[in-house]
Amino acid sequence: MVLSLTETAPAGSQPPRPATGATAGLAAGQPLGHFRIERQLGAGGMGEVYLATDVALDRAVAIKVLPQAVARDATRRERLIREARAQARVNHPNVAHIYFIGEDEGRLYFAMEHVAGATLTERIAQGPVPAEDALAIIRAAALGLREAHRSGFTHRDVKPSNLMIDAHGQVKLLDFGLAAGRGDEPHADERGSGPVAQTSIAGTPLYMAPEQGRGEPIDFRADIYALGATLYHLVSGRPPFEAETALALMSKHATAARPTLRRPSGQPRTTIAAIDRLCARMMAPDPADRFASYDELLRELELVSVERTRPAGGSVRAIATVVDLILSALLAGLMILAASALGMNTDDVNANALVLTVLAAYSIAALARLGRTFGQMLLELEVVDVATGGRPRLGQALLRVGIPLAIPLVMTWISFVLGLLDLELETGPSRMLALSLGLVPIALIWAAAAVPGKRTIWDKASKTLVRYRTRGA
Questions:
Q1: What is the tens place of the pLDDT at every residue in 306-350?
Q2: For residue 416, what are the CA distances in angstroms to 350, 420, 426, 431?
Q3: By CB distance 3.0 to 4.6 Å, which of 100, 208, 362, 444 could disulfide with 203?
């Protein structure tokens, strides 16, 4: 079994304290192919990692070499070659790049991008990571893992020490030593790998999915589980489960209830609550209950992140509604003038009923066609389907508009019909009309102040979200 309870320096990383002088394997200044060894960065059962200089291009690289004790082991050699090929196939900004693979005097090695920065393990050691920073890190890692999945690979060892943040703030996914799948086939397609049969249990128990710990076939959802455990660790400052042995850890992941994510001091309550729900789904014991694709996970990460999604608050939504109401009143006025010009009797027209009808029809059409009304457009807002990130469908637009306007619209038309019949509207219906109109701003204020994501009852019912327009919209 390849099990680890501790974090080791990953390939491409820069250690907290650089080694000096000769190393256990290669000495400083020693040539290896067209590279010159500078110092050792890390060592483990999967290989020794060195900082080196590419003499031909005069640039820093990280070199992974098989330990001398296993340099002639055919299985270990094949594993290193498979790791290099797997990582080389994943061409993405959030995955460390492979430059070269070769052999020099019996030493099999490959050279990769040297990421000068800190691992997430080092970042967590300083304390819990702010919620928005953690979401941005996990989103970047998910983008890299999505590309690996499209290339046919399951990483199988997602954890803080295999994720680095470079000097430019870019997240890099490292160490494909345990990657498995069909990506090394000549014609791997973008559908990614299917279930991977495990011949041994491989991974890190602190973040390992239950099915991976049981040695069952796994797919990308095992990586999503590990990514969820990493998110939990980032925000809370500690892993979701802790135990003295690997077997006890794997048992907890499979059977124990995950501890609720506690809110660190100074972190927003609603965002932490949303992250806790996100972790619950990412770390669901049954893979079928996790996200069905990386695209689905990425959409949810964006919805949870206030910085990326920026759900609109009650005040700006109220202003947009007032703008749309004024526009509807102008359109209703033009309709009355046009009818009057055609010789129609407009004396008995109920202006309120007409304005609300125009508002409802115009809002439904605008949302289904454009994803935003004129008032929302002026304030740089948009309405999106939370499942797809696109504009609402017609049915969703009907629900969004119908729920807040249903009672006022019905009551105004009842008033209009009763007026035509020379009947007076009794006090009860009048109060119901006033109450229904008053509930709309109350719902907006409540959502803005207390509801995660600032979603009202009609937002939730229609599975939509009002947010500030994003760059890619």
A1: 777 778 888 899 999 999 999 999 999 998 888 888 877 766 667
A2: 6, 6, 13, 16
A3: 208
Exposure string over 435-456, b if 16+ CB within 10 A, otherwise e: ebbeebeebbeebbeebbbbbb
- pTM assigned to the model: 0.71
Q: Domain 2-113, CATH 3.40.50.2000 — does that match?
A: no
In angstroms, the CA 160 to CA 85 distance is 23
pLDDT in tens, 226-252: 999 999 999 999 999 998 888 999 999
Q: How confident is the model at residue 191 (pLDDT cuts 50, 70, 90)?
A: very low
Rounded (5°) CA angle 30-34-36: 30
Task: Give the confidence band of 44 by pLDDT, cuts at 50, 70, 90.
Answer: low
Residue 364 near residue 401 (C-beta atoms within 8 A): yes
Of these residues, 54, 157, 219, 459, which one is catalytic?
A: 157
Which is higher by pLDDT, 271 or 260? 260
Is residue 157 among the annotated active site residues? yes
Q: What sign does the CA torsion over 464, 466, 472, 473 have?
A: positive
Question: What superfamily in CATH does domain 117-309 come from?
Answer: Transferase(Phosphotransferase) domain 1 (1.10.510.10)
Domain ranges for the chain, please list them: 2-113, 117-309, 314-468
The whole-angstrom distance between residue 122's C-alpha and the CA centroid of its chain comes to: 22
Which pLDDT belongs to residue 427? 53
What residues have CB less than 8 Å from 367, skipping those under 6 apart? Answer: 373, 383, 391, 392, 396, 397, 400, 401
pLDDT surpasses 80 at 467: yes
> Minimal CA–CA distance to 376: which of 367, 388, 389, 385?
367
The rounded distance, in Å, linking the Cα atoms of 411 and 395 is 23
